[in-house]
Give the backbone structure.
Amino acid sequence: MEDVAEVSGFRVRFAEPQDCDRIAAMCAALWPDGTVEEHRQEVAAKLAGEAISTLPVVILVAERQDRGLCGFLEVGLRSHADGCDGRKPVGFLEGWFVEEDARRHGVGSALVAAAEAWAREQGCAEMASDTWLDDEMSQRAHEALGYVVVDRCIHYRKLL
Ligand SMILES: CC(C)(COP(=O)(O)OP(=O)(O)OC[C@H]1O[C@@H](n2cnc3c(N)ncnc32)[C@H](O)[C@@H]1OP(=O)(O)O)[C@@H](O)C(=O)NCCC(=O)NCCS
């Protein structure tokens, strides 16, 4: 498959089935509530085009020369997102992760640029994303790439 982008020392491309285990390990680092095996099953389904989602979703990966994958970004379409025009689907950054030793070298930015290009091809005019209120690093990274805060939420739950 053709590269989506090539930046100094690494390239960004669409994930392939053989990337599943590495992506699952990175998912577990990003979302530790799930086990590597649980993530592996979800990633495998997405890479096989069998994601439990009515709208398209793809996974992009960043690969370092001779050193394997160092980041991934899962991007999908959502029918609506807070602060966005509800009349057409929005590209949504579902998961965005770069290994610690590869950070601050433009890998995250290159993944987002590729995700935005993909969403544009799907007909989107807007991107959206979310992160945790206490995750300063993620907030700074989003803002550096032009993402503007539109809302701040607290999620509630009550057992019935
Ligand atoms: C967020 C993340 C994906 C960014 O990846 P990255 O490869 O470091 O991103 P880049 O190198 O392209 O950084 C782009 C810009 O974001 C900002 N930025 C990134 N990390 C930052 C940090 N720790 N503190 C302040 N600004 C930061 C900077 O402006 C940076 O540009 P600069 O390095 O030229 O100053 C990575 O830090 C990560 O995986 N974090 C843990 C998981 C996470 O928070 N994911 C996002 C929420 S789902």
